[in-house]
Write a structure and sequence with these properties.
single chain, globular, 173 residues, 0% strand
Length: 173
């Protein structure tokens, strides 16, 4: 609901896309504390298979974030393309999962926040994302227009890598 109200206040389409990106970042970083297990020793010694449960937990959290952000289109004018929202949520969720594996759940949000800040800091003025070499498009995947194939591929790779790494290794203690 806050995204809908914010997008009503923003008149420029690129400003709405930026607001949607920042709200997606905030929502996906809220997943991070839930990625910690209750007890690391229990996670290692339990008789049940944790990888499928961890992967399902991460996927359900990402789908919930996407659903909440995409629901703004149902109540009024769309803030960003649904494909762009899905791409950004998938990539940011993968980065949160990679952050949990590498830094622990308490600091898992550092990776997506740092990536987003660097992309927004080095993005060219006037909101025009780089269209140059594919590696630049892939590094700036979150600000690319909807349907940009290298950006979608980068987000999918991040989502898959984060899900697999978190499912196999869990959160660092």
């Amino acid at each position: 609901m806050a995204l809908w109200a914010l997008c009503l206040a923003i008149d420029h389409p690129q400003g709405r896309e930026l607001a949607t990106l920042l709200v997606a970042l905030a929502a996906t970083t809220a997943i991070a504390p839930g990625l910690a297990g209750a007890d690391p020793d229990l996670d290692r010694a339990a008789a049940i298979a944790w990888p499928p449960r961890r992967a399902a937990h991460l996927i359900v959290a990402g789908v919930a974030v996407f659903g909440a952000l995409a629901a703004t289109a149902l109540v009024g004018e769309q803030s960003a393309d649904a494909g762009q929202i899905a791409r950004n949520v998938a990539g940011l969720t993968g980065l949160v999962a990679l952050g949990a594996v590498g830094f622990g759940a308490a600091r898992a949000s550092l990776l997506p926040v740092l990536w987003t800040v660097l992309v927004l800091w080095w993005a060219p003025p006037m909101g025009v994302p780089p269209t140059g070499p594919p590696y630049r498009v892939m590094l700036t995947w979150m600000v690319q227009p909807a349907g940009t194939q290298p950006a979608v591929m980068a987000a999918v790779v991040l989502a898959a890598a984060g899900t697999v790494a978190y499912a196999l290794f869990g959160s660092r203690s």
